[in-house]
Amino acid sequence: MLKLGVNIDHVATLREARYRGSSHGEPDPVMAAQICEDAGAHGITAHLREDRRHILDRDLASLRSSIRTRLNMEMAATPPMVELAIRTKPEIVCLVPENRQEVTTEGGLDVRTHWKTLMEVRERLNHAKIEVSLFINPELVQIEAASLAGVQFIELHTGAFAEAFGNPAQRDLELDRLIKASQTAASLGLKVNAGHGLNYQNVPTLFAVPHLLELNIGHSIISRSIKTGIFAAVREMLEVMKGYPA
Description:
This protein is an alpha/beta fold. It has a single domain, classed as Aldolase class I (TIM Barrel). Helices cover 48% and strands 17% of the residues. The chain is built from eleven helices and eight strands. It has helices spanning 9-19, 29-38, 57-66, 79-88, 111-127, 140-149, 159-163, 168-187, 203-206, 219-228, 230-241, and strands spanning 3-7, 43-47, 71-75, 92-95, 131-136, 153-157, 191-195, 212-217. The protein has an eight-stranded parallel barrel with strand order 1-2-3-4-5-6-7-8, surrounded by eight helices. β7 (191-195), α9 and β8 form a beta-alpha-beta unit. α5 (111-127) runs parallel beside α6, α6 (140-149) runs parallel beside α8 and α10 packs across α11 (230-241). The longest helix is centred in the last third of the chain and has 20 residues, at 168-187. The model has no long low-confidence stretch (mean pLDDT 96).
């Protein structure tokens, strides 16, 4: 069964637009996470950025103490973040690149260049009983480097696929890249997740990609929730995902 991890960052983005610097505010990303779980989500994803633009330290602590499924902490591979992750103890950490000028994470890690550093981070997190994933573009050299780093998971960056979705020829090229990347990762013993830009329209096309375990989806679910509420938005996405071949 293909699992759904719901990214709740944009709930916090909305709160911070009005309550930045305050000790309170709405909407509450922790309450949103609990509703997602009630609707059947298999995990909750939260990206604690170095500039704390949306998810805050207090959110992460509350998520750790309250969610019942699986906490996926997205973060940069910096010493302060590693220390915080070790204290927080999410089930999994997904290491991502960070650019403070970007609206959301754009592009994957350059694992080929930094695999030794990422291996050291992975070792520290694994020692704390935290699994490690790397957010990477569907490039074979990056997947091979991820294997060298010894991580348990990769998360394939599906942004190029999502952006090309309206252009069938380009979409098929991007889909083929994802298929080959997932096949290579599986052959190297890596578990495969995917995310970025996924929505209710393009997810069924992604079913052509083998070996997927979990999709991490945020923006489209939070956007849909304005019309339907979060519970129904999560249920609708889970229904869409039922078609993934076992």
